[in-house]
Design brief:
The radius of gyration is 21 Å and the shape is elongated. The chain is mainly alpha-helical and 153 residues long. It has five helices and no strands. It has a domain of 104 residues: Four Helix Bundle (Hemerythrin (Met), subunit A).
Length: 153
């Protein structure tokens, strides 16, 4: 009887609004980000667009420097993303092999982690380069903005 109640509760919860099947949720998570070209892998969606954060009273010179910093960052992140996707493909190949090489897989995982760490360091470095361009009043607004986020996988 208890098992039947649990089963019926599960069906009821699944049928509630917002209870999309897992594959639908995955599709929603991997949908292209606004402003990113369609078909771009989700790994590349974390790169900031060459836009300027919403900070009041930015001079033309500040805007140009911020855009240049973001553009340089995007180029570097694209390079790291390509390397990550390559290593993830090799890892997937190992996962489906008849006799997977666990050491090679662990090495690939370490490499992927190192690349993600490098991206986070680049985001942090660029954040502070932008901050250095700002006046004290602008820094207050900038510091209240959400922190830069690494690419989502």
């Amino acid at each position: 009887m208890t098992l039947l109640c649990l089963f019926m509760t599960g069906i009821t919860l699944y049928a509630q609004p917002g209870g999309a099947p897992p594959h639908k949720k995955m599709q929603e998570q991997t949908a292209p980000c606004e402003g990113m070209p369609p078909g771009m892998p989700p790994a590349m969606h974390g790169a900031p667009e060459a836009q300027v954060p919403p900070i009041p009273d930015l001079s033309k010179e500040q805007i140009d420097k911020i855009k240049l910093l973001n553009q340089q960052l995007r180029k570097q992140i694209l390079s790291f993303d390509a390397q990550i996707m390559e290593k993830e493909a090799k890892l997937q190949t190992q996962k489906i092999a008849d006799k997977p090489d666990i050491r090679a897989m662990n090495g690939l995982i370490d490499d992927i982690s190192t690349l993600h760490g490098s991206i986070m360091k680049l985001l942090n470095e660029t954040h502070f380069k932008i901050r250095d361009l700002l006046t004290e009043d602008q820094k207050l607004v900038f510091d209240e903005l959400p922190p830069p986020t690494p690419p989502h996988r």
